[in-house]
User: Fold this.
Amino acid sequence: MTTTTVASFEIKYHQYLDAQGKPTQELPAFAKDMDKMRKLYRDMALLRAFDAKAYALQRTGKMGTYPASLGQEAIGIGYGDAMTSEDVLIPYYRSTGAMLKHGITMEEILLYWGGDESGSNYSVAKEDFPICVPIANQIIHASGVAKAIQMRGQKRAVATEIGEGGTSEGDFYEGINVAGIWNLGVVFMVNNNQWAISVPTEIQTACETYAQKAIAAGIEGVQVDGNDIIAVKQVAEYAFEKARNGGGPTLIEAITYRLCDHTTADDASRYDDPKVKEEAWKNEPMVRLRKYLEANKAWSDKDEEAMKAEIAKEVDAAVKAYEETPKPGPELMFDHLYAELPELTKPQREAAIKLAEKARGAK
Amino acid sequence: MAAITLIEAVNAAMAYELEHDKDVVLFGEDVGKNGGVFRATDGLQKKYGTDRVIDSPLAESMIAGLAVGMAAQGMKPIAEMQFMGFIFPAVDQIFCHAARMRHRTRGRLTLPMVIRAPYGGGIHAPEHHSESTEALFAHIPGLKVVIPSNPSRAYGLMLAAIRDPDPVIFLEPKRVYRIVKHEVEDNGEEYPLEACFVDREGSDITLISWGAMMHETLQAAEKLAAEGIDAEVIDVATISPIDMDTILESVQKTGRVCIVQEAPKSGSIGSEIAAEIAEKAILSLLAPIGRVSGYDTVMPYYRLEKQYMPTVDRILDEARKIMEYK
Assistant:
């Protein structure tokens, strides 16, 4: 039988710094700008400190369930740094790094996880979506936003992010598929942290890579070392430029390891192998960047100490603002349901307000 | 002014808004070149171009999710679900995002979007093409659910749905797509949402219905008139949020109520209307509330659908029983 190959594909892997912080190839220009690299290091440190504080708030009953980004900081900070304020971010629950980079404040993020939707009423990033909790719905939203941008002839990109487990959802394929057909300017980030709560990759897919899922949508798919912020940023810069200029979508699989629990409600020790985790700690993104900075004489213990003190102050100020935010009144359940509350619902609003007043009076 | 069918009225209203509002965009499966499987979008792509009347890939969740994304950018998408029986993959997007975005962002992002779907039985369609699942959507806060029963209402309510600042599920009773024609002036005048229509004034009994069943209900009212029973007939039209004031006013006048719906009886819009009447006007009632509905069964394949769906006779029987109650 004679056959003809009608399609074939390959997936490229990008890495610039190895786990020891040593360049594996010629570095992009931004990576030689030590001020820039120090800033990225600080951004990652801020995210890590913020996560630690958020964990502490949850553990002490001052905040609800929270998903940290420990070990995955290079992803959100890396692609977030490639975004402009004109671009639109469609985050999921582990996009804290990109959210911070895109102008969503620590106080807003705490308020959100503290159980108040007001945290999604972003003061700066007015067009960004609230965090998507159901898995993979955000992939389609990103394509919808990008379609509107395309129809209006604007040069703006849309970014969204999903865990590797989320790529098993139908919405993931539906979203990237339409982005391919309509040539939409979206950057789809896949945070491959090896775990979907307790489910590892071998239970999630038979594919060698998550990046190759892009091939079935006719879009470009690439893989990066998600612990190498230079690789994440470099590939993201390329994808955003392409998206803004009519070049269509890109799917970027960033390989990392979830060094934390899925959320504060999870206990990863039930399923994670401590030896594997120990190895993963050697590969984490901040140590690598610090080694690179030190090798370039751009970082010292003194710098580290000063930075940590500064960051602690910033985080504490955000926590203070969060803790001082008054609890929402029951009218907020009703006031943003529709542009105008239905007649039938108005008595419920009044009743809820009266009950709250009565409860306050009883105190 | 021309006499047009319900589906032509849907088409005319969408054309009017495409013509007058550059943010309106229409998409779904087969809506472009083919003009929709029922021809609801017939001729619109030719007139308004492939940029604004778009044939989308076949994926319902995607269709609804795209509408969410586009509407969040201030566009006014009208997305078609080819049949309501296929809307379920999109429920995730509709319930979790369309209905909640305004609330979740404290009004920062709002979604002026419409999701259209033909629904209901009576056209000998394949399985999954004939259900009446409107109550599922009416149950979700943040959505509006609108069902026109005739051509002029389809035109006026569709205009209102497109212009509404919040997501509207617009359900089209496909059995009556072409059974009557109305003179409808294509003048862009909308009808109010959250308003019932009193289609026949009467003093003895209030018949309440919506969608395709309005036709059987109105016929029943005429027959009752011949028997000396003066029925008031209300078309609910917007089943969420419901205009209970109009219904309660009528019940207080007549003291007798019969609710007619094609959907299964339990946990339905009919149940909700009955409960509201019981809460707010029970002392005006002269007889127990009556309900004529589809059975609490799976919507049968078409050999049995006529036996499933309420008929004029079933409505008459129930109405007479209510009238005879002492």
User: Anything to note?
Assistant: The beta strands of chain A are 13-14, 88-90, 158-163, 186-192, 195-196, 199-200, 220-225, 250-255. The longest helix of chain A spans residues 34-59. Chain A touches chain B at residues 90, 117-118, 120-122, 126-127, 129-130, 132-134, 137, 140-149, 151-152, 170-171, 174-175, 177-178, 181, 332, 335-339, 342-345 (CB under 8 Å).
